């Protein structure tokens, strides 16, 4: 049995579908079962959906029974109230590791993040770095993947730019100088990397940095999104200190803010991989090209506003179903 934590998330639902396709038995652990039932409706008859909270170890114990592999995906990029990076990302991972050990699970695949180390400035990246350090010292048969920013039909990075473009008819604000570098990696390639780690024990004890085939600046990413949408905007560079208060207000007011203070912080940190983990795992990455982003054309002003106000989840499901995803 494979236990996937965070199974209803962006990476999680793609991974679960792939595991089902491969005929693997999956226990999908989530915080909100109702949301998971909607998001995983097409594969629901083939999996077990269970409710667990990584911050409450006792809620995990039962779900570790009969598990051979844990694939740990849960993390938050936006803090809310008591749900801090340290509690969810660090302590949450420690709890999952400890419960796995208690239940005698040996294999553990941890979703880390490119640039996440215990000594970095960003609290978000640090929380993930400390978690990975704990996993590496756990004594389990662990493997870690460290993707750069992940793109795909449900992502919260490139799609946010596309949605904002829909809302800004003439000018488009570029955060900072637009020169921060990224290596967007396709969600399907990240999922495939996890599957290869799962199937190949020579990956035990290793970390794989995952990046797409090109290093792109933030401004180049916006240019590709504009090309995908078949539109143009006058780009205006806005210094981060000017954006911070606006973003902080959006983050407080909107259920799904288009930008967060963490995103602003991350836009300042180069997110380029040093070692090509996809190549090491024998995967040819899908490029971040306007053709491959054509799904963005389906975004409308209505779904964009709905998304930022937290309504668009179902609309997104309908759209994806219509596209046969
Ligand atoms: N997205 C990227 O570009 C990117 C890049 C590099 C690395 N990563 C890493 O990839 C992983 C998955 O990211 P994602 O973008 O797929 O995240 P996501 O869409 O926000 O999904 C997070 C998942 O975690 C679950 N969850 C949240 N709090 C929980 C809790 N207390 N207990 C149990 N489950 C909880 C959520 O379920 P509920 O909503 O039901 O609570 C959801 O299934 C994370 O570790 C992230 O750091 C992501």
From TrEMBL:
Superkingdom of origin: Bacteria
CDD domains according to UniProt: NDUFA9_like_SDR_a (cd05271)
Ranges where the NAD(P)-binding domain occurs: 6-150
GO terms for MF: protein-containing complex binding
InterPro entries attached to this UniProt entry: ComplexI_NDUFA9_subunit, NAD(P)-bd_dom, NAD(P)-bd_dom_sf
Cleavable signal peptide: none
Protein name according to UniProt: Complex I NDUFA9 subunit family protein
Taxon lineage: Bacteria, Bacillati, Chloroflexota, Candidatus Thermofontia, Candidatus Thermofonsia Clade 1
